[in-house]
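Our platform keeps sequence and structure together, in a single record for each protein. Such a record has a labelled line for the sequence and another for the backbone structure tokens. This encoding replaces a full spatial description with a residue-level series of whole-number codes. Below, we set out a record of this kind in full and without editing:
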Amino acid sequence: MTGGLDIALVQTRTPATARGGLDHVAPLIREAAGGGARFVLTPEGTNLLEQRRDRRAAVLADEDADDAVLGLRRLAAELGIWLLVGSAIVRSGRRGDDRAANRSLLIDDRGGIVARYDKLHVFDVDLPNGERYRESSTVRPGDAAAVADTPWGRLGLTICYDLRFPHLHRQLAQAGASMIAVPAAFTAPTGEAHWETLLRARAIETGAFILAPAQGGLHEDGRRTWGRSLVVGPWGEVIARADHDEPCVLHAKMDMGAVARARSAIPSLTHDRDFAAAR
């Protein structure tokens, strides 16, 4: 579908409980809708950010019982907007596995969940500054990519560390995604070094809009996230940027016809060739 689309990215500093998360994000979503956004996107961990395992276990809920998820579904219906909950940290629902799911939820303007995506790539790294992350110890990775239909075109779903895997974004674009969401809670060191560069690269490679709402600042559990939410056009141009870590609403207007123009100019999505693997 061609034509302009008013969107908003909500940048947050989410607390450590789902009730606190809802109270934090809901006014920002209302502000976004009041400013004319028809599609609003929130970051990874919109319902809660709590990396301390014992405390997370005490507040974790099933998707259909999570205070933030339920409240955000009602809010989308009330405001008549489409809402991407960048991710909610909820029970995975897998028998015998007490790890959580890090799950994107696409909500339509009637409050219905029309797509789900569990983060494929979990963040297990030792950073040069001494920070150590083992997301796999508390989060069960997903096993399927996801593209969803919206009134404005197909939306590819990713979460945070997925950004470093270009083949995932390519597959989403080849499946028809004209927009790719990259909700994130990027660490400050990796965000400063790589965030914008990677987002612009994924846009150029896919000829898609990249929509990247982020967490920012120092959180209750001690982590510090990068912020700097970003909207990137399919030619790699930055359309809108938050230049700080504070909670805010970032508005952008997208010309959806730009996707076809970029892919016509550089039709690399149609030029895959089989080749022997390097050894």
Remarks:
- Residues 188-206 form the longest helix (19 residues).
- The two ends are 43 Å apart (CA to CA).
- The chain has a mean pLDDT of 95.
- The longest strand covers residues 82-91.
